[in-house]
Design a protein that fits this description.
There is one protein chain. This protein is an alpha+beta fold and 103 residues long. The chain has one domain. The chain is 39% helix and 27% strand. It has 3 helices and 5 strands; from the N terminus they run βαββαββα. Strands 2-3-1-4-5 form a 5-stranded antiparallel β-sheet, covered by helices on one side. Strand 4 and strand 5 (81-86) form a beta hairpin. It is globular, with a radius of gyration of 13 Å.
Amino acid sequence: MELAVDDPAEVGSLKSFVKLAAPGAQVSALAGSPAKYELGVLDVLAIVGSSSVLAAVIQVLPEFLRSRKPGMSITVSIKGDEVTVTVANVDAELPDLKRRLDG
């Protein structure tokens, strides 16, 4: 699973948050790829663990988002599928993200 935060300044905070919430997760920061017409790259957090560890990471995303500035988003990539979650939609997207882990 990969997590990309729209604010590069929050990557370190998200990494620390994930490690606290899911101690069994292996979390690594990787250089992301810039989108078309973008110059820079954002760090992406690659998270490896059992399905229960990954489910725990997904479960804490709402808490992380609510503790940050309004409008912040996290793009979650599971098995090549991407979903962008915000404070406004994270509760609605949680069941879908969990299903993607099982699928």
